[in-house]
Every structure is written in C-alpha cells, then in structure tokens.
Design goal:
Length: about 300
C-alpha cells in the first residue's frame, strides 16, 4: 500500500481580519490509497477529528473537494449518498456529518475551512442549504488551482494574506452557485428562448422594440415569456433592456467622441434630455458629468 500524501495547515487570524466578514481557518489536501484507514490517525487536532464510525461536528464551514476516487457522505439534514470525483461537499457549523472514501478506490480530497458573517448571511439568504450539501462541478483544474493558491499563500502568511485567500474562497463559493444554477436550467428547453431573446435585445438596443414584440417574434406568449425570463435572469425583460441601454450609453460616453445628442438618438431616446433623465435615474449623475470623469485634465 502506498503511503498517504497529505498536507494540512491551521491558520491564525486577527480581530481586524474578522472585520472583513470572513476568515480562513484551515486548508489542506490528502490522497488516501485504496484500503487505507480513514480518517488517518493523529492527523488533525481533536476539534477536527472524526470519531471512527460516529462522524463529527465542526464550528466552521468547510468545502471538501473530491478530485479522485469516490465514497459516501451523510449528515444531519442529508441522507447517505454516493460521492463521485468532481463533487464539493459543503460542511456547516454545528451540523453532524460523516464521510469516507470507498475502500476499493480511495480518494484525493482538498479542503478549506472558514467562518464569518459573510457566509452566515449567504446561508440565511438560501444561497446554500444544509439539505443539499453536495455540489457536483466536475474535476476542474481551475478550482484545484484555487485550492493550491490558498495553500501557497497560507504557508507564507504575508501581511494581509487572510484578505487575499478569503477572496479566493469567495471565488470558489461563486463557482459553486454558478454551476448549480446553470445545471438546474441545462435541461430546460426555454433556455434557448431566453438566449434568442437576449440576442434580439442586444441587436436592437436603439429600436425601442418592446418585450411583447420580442415574445411575438419568438412565437411564445408574453406572460409565459416574462415569467421564465425573470426566473432565469433574475430581472424582467424590460429591466434587462434598460441595463443594456445603460451599459451601451456608459461605454460610448467613456470611450467615444459622439455627441450626447447622437448617443441619445442611437439608443432610441427622443432627445438628449430624455437620455439625461434616464441616466440620472440609474447613475445619479448626468451623462456629461460621467463623460468628463473619463477625460484627462488639460
């Protein structure tokens, strides 16, 4: 049997670090060969150690990424499930859990632990759930590189490293939310309708085409179209069109030489005053003030 490959590091943090809203507590990896004892004996402090066969509770969050092999997981709010390579297991403070690799395959796992009000708030907002702690994202070399980056910077402990590595943790969390959200919609046929609708909107920013007309072009009912568009994007079709117009206006004001009147006309506004009113509602300043902020002083 090959020896276990492992690394673990437990991090310190200051009250100033905690004001950031999230601190990293631990990071590491281990590769468990087939038929090796799990968890490894005397590898972790008592607060982190599994009682064999009984599981454990932590006082922090952890993201455990299984990159090789397979096994199983169960927790207080989740029945026992098979865990395949490419799965991130999210552990929650105070939540009993238990997991282990398949003795016939072993596995390789990365983990990072963290806590703070930032993640507490995300949990309260239902971005994450104790009932659904497993996120299959596939074996992603980019995510593995993020774990490696945390390990590298935690070893050096350069001043401010906590802020840097917790930013990486937020990146991983964002990737989980993105993958889960996208996966939920992947099999739904209406995604093509939304993509086609967004293509029409982008191609007709200055033509004042209404969401009702877009639905008609796509051959679907407007009420259904509005509902599924908002379900997928988080905003209504009309709000999406407004965001497109605002982004195009800002781009042309910052980087172009066209007059404000020309920009207003090209974006479908009746005149520059209407553009100015629209711009102030969304940005709090006039188009001219916005443009002047991008011009070097003479």
């Amino acid at each position: 049997m090959k020896p276990t490959e492992c690394y673990s590091h437990y991090l310190h943090f200051t009250p100033r670090d905690e004001q950031w809203g999230i601190v990293c507590t631990t990071v590491g990896y281990q590769k468990m060969p087939p038929h090796s004892p799990y968890p490894p004996v005397n590898r972790h402090p008592d607060d982190y150690f599994f009682q064999k066969g009984l599981g454990r509770k932590l006082n922090e969050y952890q993201l455990v990424y299984i990159v090789e092999g397979n096994g199983w997981f169960e927790s207080e709010h989740c029945e026992k499930q098979i865990v395949h390579a490419g799965t991130i297991i999210m552990l929650f403070p105070g939540e009993w859990h238990h997991y282990a690799p398949n003795p016939n395959t072993g596995w390789k796992e990365y983990w990072v632990g963290f806590k703070g009000r930032f993640i507490d708030e995300r949990l309260n907002m239902k971005f994450f759930s104790k009932e659904a702690p497993l996120a299959y994202i596939g074996t992603d070399v980019h995510i593995i590189s993020l774990y490696d980056e945390i390990i590298h910077n935690s070893q050096n402990e350069i001043h401010g490293y906590q802020n840097y590595i917790t930013g990486i943790i937020m990146h991983i969390l964002g990737s989980i939310v993105f993958n889960l959200t996208e996966r939920n919609f992947q099999e739904k046929e209406f995604v093509k309708v939304i993509d086609d609708a967004r293509g029409i909107m982008k191609a007709s920013i200055g033509k004042n085409i209404s969401p009702e007309q877009i639905a008609q072009q796509l051959g679907v009912g407007y009420s259904w179209f509005r509902r599924i568009f908002k379900e997928y994007t988080g905003i209504s079709p009309a709000q999406y069109q407004q965001q497109l117009r605002l982004a195009e206006a800002k781009e042309r004001l910052a980087n172009g030489t066209s007059s404000i009147s020309t920009i207003a006309y090209d974006l479908g506004f009746a005149n520059s005053n209407q553009l100015s009113t629209f711009f102030r509602q969304h940005e709090g300043i006039s188009p001219r003030t916005f443009r002047n902020g991008f011009r070097p002083e003479q």
